[in-house]
Design brief:
The chain is α+β, with helices and mostly antiparallel strands. The chain is built from seven helices and three strands, in the order ααααββααβα.
Length: 127
Amino acid sequence: MSIAKEVQLFANLLLTGEIDSVSDLFKKAGLSRNHNLAALWDSVLSEIYPLTTRAIFANKSKLKSFDGVEAIVEIDDPVLMTMLPMRIPNLEGAFLIVLGRNVKVKLVINEVTAKPAPPPTLCCSDE
């Protein structure tokens, strides 16, 4: 079964009430949350168009969390964070293709990679 079909099955289980949460599904399937997020993100990335937008998200972001309704996408580059909000419809369209339903996408900055490097220190004094 393809990842997209598995994700669609998950969405149907969630909508029909057979499972209560993403965590419940992970427990029943014996999978870790991080593994499933990565698999879902790979499926979503494969449906993002145009290809330039897909490349940016593939290289500079990750799916931080997904609760079945909202997806939190973490962006590694603060400069891109100012440009990518206009691409949220591309992401939401990809989630719609993969899951067969609407998902609200929220972009957040990766606080670890977004911190500016400390200024260089001088090794020598002119005095």
